[in-house]
Amino acid sequence: MSKRAGTFVTLRDLLDEVGRDAVRFTMLTRKADAQMDFDLDAVVAQTRDNPVFYVQYAHARCRSVMRSAEAMFGADVTTDASLTGAELSRLGSDVELAVLRRLSTFPRVVEGAAQTREPHRIAYYCGELAADFHALWNKGREDTTLRFLHEHDKAASLAKLALVVSVASVLRCGLAILGVEPVEEMR
């Protein structure tokens, strides 16, 4: 928008161009009293620079792992009943523990955001959780012990799967609070 040049983009045009979820999430990543710079190029990019893409991509990756686990171990492996007995002590790497620590703060983040009427806290949190999850994903490409699924070690897979299911659940809840749809898969 430029007052001097007399140019502007309406919210309707923006919604038509990038979609409701991208506009909503991007707007909610700013404090209410902060100036808004809406970078259209960043919002349409499928990169880490696009906060809604980055968070939705983390959720889609979680769902992909869950589908792979169901194909490997059976359809009921991702149910609460199956994951309740998971040996979480099998999670011990620094990156796994970072994700667990981040997950543990979600209730306080939501409570704080509600008390202070600052929804951007939830958007920030979702971005940070997505970053932690993507870091774990990338480390798993280098270190096979950090991969989520181990065909010959179901106990380790269940522990890691419990972590993945938790990340997906928390991202889904955070996005729901913000009014943004989680993505099941990226195309």
Word description of this protein:
There is one protein chain. With 187 residues, the protein is mostly helical. 64% of the residues lie in helices and 0% in strands. The chain contains nine helices and no strands. Helix 6 (94-104) packs parallel to helix 9 (154-178). The protein is elongated.
Write down the overall mean pLDDT: 87
Q: What is the helix/strand order?
A: HHHHHHHHH
What count of helical segments does DSSP give? Answer: 9
The whole-angstrom Rg is 19 Å
Brief characterization of the structure:
This protein has 187 residues and is mostly helical.
Secondary structure elements and pairings:
Layout: H1 11-18, H2 20-27, H3 40-44, H4 51-73, H5 80-84, H6 94-104, H7 106-116, H8 120-142, H9 154-178
Label this structure with key terms:
single chain, 187 residues, mainly alpha, elongated
